[in-house]
Write a structure and sequence with these properties.
The chain is mainly α and 118 residues long. 86% of the residues lie in helices and 0% in strands. The longest helix has 29 residues. The chain is globular and about 50 Å long. This is Stage V sporulation protein AE. It comes from Lederbergia ruris. InterPro entries: Spore_V_AE, SpoVA.
Length: 118
């Protein structure tokens, strides 16, 4: 059990460290990093490399935004097998709709509660 926590922390920290190094060296904005990490997660999922990482690191691989890219590809591939090309689009939204909905709802609630800066 302790080893699982250790590797989860190490892999999650490594993903964050890579992101910070990319931001610092290439001077990318957080929005660019968000997009880049979603694409990296999608590419790794497409190559079949992200699921073994999740099996090894657990939450260390499912919490970072790269996991969202993995979910998009996993949903698209599952629905593409059932419904063909149309399933690619519907599968991406079906699997990730709860996360997207939660982000919108909590973002709206946060905007109502807190004062904007600037």
């Amino acid at each position: 059990m302790l080893a699982m926590f250790f590797w989860s922390f190490m892999i999650g920290g490594l993903i964050c460290m890579i992101g910070q190094l990319i931001m610092d060296t290439l001077k990318l904005t957080p929005g660019h990093m968000l997009s880049l990490f979603v694409v990296i997660g999608a590419v790794l999922a497409g190559l079949g490399l992200y699921e073994p990482l999740i099996d090894f690191a657990g939450a260390g691989a499912t919490i970072p935004i790269t996991s969202f890219g993995n979910s998009l590809v996993k949903g698209a591939m599952a629905e593409a097998d059932k419904h063909g090309l149309v399933g690619v689009l519907t599968g991406m939204f079906e699997v990730t709709s709860s996360g997207i909905s939660a982000a919108i709802v909590f973002g709206f609630i946060g905007a109502l509660i807190f004062k904007p800066k600037g």
